[in-house]
């Protein structure tokens, strides 16, 4: 399990160092996650140690929301002052995410020919 945690943290460290060193406009952990994904593709699967650590982290995912909740409570007056902009951005980003997801699904799903459609005359 220590090996899996080391792999995860090492990928995050490489991503963070790359972002800071090159001045990329991407969060370091996101780049680290992309590197981890590429490593999985090259290896042909997820190592058991990483899968075990990932499962453990997912079991305790609710604990990872504690810092975010504390941040919201700390800046509650700022949220109250800017609630309109926050609400508008949440609604807009949600609608945009749904639209982009639908377009990508439409693009990736195979198209049916008239003969393949259920109930088509044969």
UniProtKB/TrEMBL annotation:
Q: Which residues form a coiled coil?
A: none
Tell me which UniProt keywords the record has, alphabetically. Cell membrane, Membrane, Transmembrane, Transmembrane helix
List, alphabetically, the GO terms of the cellular component aspect. Answer: plasma membrane
Membrane listed as a keyword:
yes
Q: How does it sit in the membrane?
A: Multi-pass membrane protein
InterPro entries according to UniProt: LrgA/CidA
The record's subcellular locations are: Cell membrane
Indicate the principal place this protein occupies in or around the cell.
membrane
Q: Does the keyword Nucleotide-binding apply?
A: no
Protein name (Swiss-Prot/TrEMBL): Murein hydrolase transporter LrgA
Q: Tell me which species this is from.
A: Elstera litoralis
């Amino acid at each position: 399990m220590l090996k899996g945690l080391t792999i995860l943290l090492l990928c995050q460290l490489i991503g963070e160092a790359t972002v800071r060193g090159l001045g990329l406009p991407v969060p370091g952990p996101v780049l680290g996650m992309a590197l981890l994904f590429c490593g999985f593709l090259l290896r042909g699967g997820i190592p058991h140690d990483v899968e075990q650590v990932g499962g453990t982290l997912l079991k305790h995912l609710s604990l990872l929301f504690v810092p975010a909740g504390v941040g919201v409570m700390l800046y509650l007056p700022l949220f109250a002052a800017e609630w309109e902009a926050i609400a508008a951005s949440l609604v807009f980003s949600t609608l945009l995410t749904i639209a982009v997801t639908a377009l990508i699904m439409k693009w990736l799903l195979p198209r049916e020919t008239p003969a393949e459609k259920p109930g088509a005359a044969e």
